[in-house]
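Protein in question reproduced for absentees:

***
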Amino acid sequence: FVSIGGIAVAADRPTALQFEGARLSGSAGCNRFSGGYAVSDGTLKAGPLMATEMACPGAGMTQEAAFFKLMATPVSLTFADDGTLTLTGSEGRTAVLRRAI
């Protein structure tokens, strides 16, 4: 992740999102999560997402809460030439991801 909800992810809170088959998994800064997903016409629908239930100090919980709120509804997918993927929710919330090399 580069940013969640327009705020840069905390450098000390590792984030990742992986797609494998019909499942996605990762971490939005605190807990690990996973769940099913489907993509149709540039829209991703995830869920339900299951997550571990650890509490984390500071930015980890804030950015994770913003990510789960975003993923609770369908999101549009926008791929950029620079290798970033932007997930945009119906209320304009975003998560920007950069592909790991």
